[in-house]
Amino acid sequence: xxxxxxxxxxxxxxxxxxxxxxxxxxxxxxxxxxxxxxxxxxxxxxxxxxxxxxxxxxxxxxxxxxxxxxxxxxxxxxxxxxxxxxxxxxxxxxxxxxxxxxxxxxxxxxxxxxxxxxxxxxxx
Amino acid sequence: xxxxxxxxxxxxxxxxxxxxxxxxxxxxxxxxxxxxxxxxxxxxxxxxxxxxxxxxxxxxxxxxxxxxxxxxxxxxxxxxxxxxxxxxxxxxxxxxxxxxxxxxxxxxxxxxxxxxxxxxxxxx
Lengths: 124, 124
Hints:
The structure is a homodimer. The first copy, chain A, is mainly alpha-helical. The first copy, chain A, has 2 domains: 1-82, no CATH class; 84-124. The first copy, chain A, is built from 5 helices and no strands. Chain A has helices at residues 10-14, 34-43, 46-54, 61-77, 84-123. Chain A is rod-shaped and about 90 Å long. Chains A and B meet through helix 3, helix 4 and helix 5 of A and helix 3, helix 4 and helix 5 of B.
């Protein structure tokens, strides 16, 4: 029989269930931070969060929880685009940086040509 | 009474339910593409997908479906990081571009100084 968890998870506390020591949510969703759990529960649903955590290794679960919380927050803030808004903004930023880099490269080439022209003029 | 949909959605077909014409999933998840629905169903769950679509305007639903499909695909491919992997890769790419841009800017300044030095030498 599973031992009861001394620190129940936010899900078990919400549903007034006994939280066992083997509860996969307990280490990441303490009942002291109910908002964190409410966020992923609202977007993914409790069973999907549990399934995701059960499908990966122990040491990966912290990262998985962080990424789910980030995705859930993005979806709550922007129900239409979720975290794809961030992806598009970053892609836009990359496109702008690439344009600036190309312009700068052209400027370097021009400056070097000018310098070489002057150098050859000085040598003749 | 809601009229039956002539083109049932992938969810209703899967659960052998009558798909009404007012089904919010039907325009975006046709039964001819069951994999598309299976993807979002696996990550978000049917009720969360429906809730998200019902919570936004009609004209935004196509974009919301695309972003949910993208997120779900990323989560299935990488259950630990989901689409935050793409976000981190893009952030990394931006950091690299900014380093290159700073180096290029320094090169432009150096080339200009050299050119100005030569020009003043030619004028004296």
